[in-house]
Amino acid sequence: MNISKNEQRALHVLALGGRILHERETGPKVTAALCVTREGMILADFDLNVFARLRRKRLIESRAGSPYRISRKGRLSVRAQLDNQGG
């Protein structure tokens, strides 16, 4: 599966205990998404496009309206890296 660098970075944050906070205006459509690390830092290059691609590939999931977390498929497809600073 082809996973971009931004998607890979977000999956790595989620694998380490992060989450994606999402907002909805009216209806089921997500209007804003924010990727937060377990320390509370915000991932800068995360936007709705990356969020939509991760959801479409079923690498993230939300249960009962809770914040999005990494799915089993996402855990299996994330590549190992020493830290989140790598290029």
Task: Characterise this structure.
This is UPF0386 protein LPB142_14620. Belongs to the UPF0386 family. InterPro entries: YjhX_toxin. Pfam families: YjhX_toxin. Helices cover 30% and strands 20% of the residues. A hairpin with a 7-residue loop joins β3 (60-61) and β4. The chain has one domain (5-72). The longest helix is centred in the N-terminal third of the chain and has 11 residues, at 5-15. By secondary structure, it is of the alpha+beta class. The strands form 2 sheets. Strands 1-2 form a two-stranded antiparallel sheet. Strands 3-4 form a two-stranded antiparallel sheet.
Identify the notable features of this structure and list them briefly.
two-stranded antiparallel sheet; two-stranded antiparallel ribbon; 3 helices; 87 residues; alpha+beta
Q: What topology does this entry show?
A:
Layout: H1 5-15, E1 19-24, E2 30-36, H2 48-56, E3 60-61, E4 69-70, H3 72-77
Antiparallel strand pairs: 1-2, 3-4
Family: Belongs to the UPF0386 family.
Pfam families: YjhX_toxin
InterPro entries: YjhX_toxin
Strand order within the widest beta sheet: 1-2
Instruction: Please tally the helical runs, counting DSSP H or I stretches of 4 or more residues.
Output: 3
Helix content, binned percent: 25-40%
Low-confidence segments, ≥5 residues, pLDDT <50? none
Sheet-strand content, in percent, reads 15-25%
H/E topology pattern: HEEHEEH
Rounded Rg: 12 Å
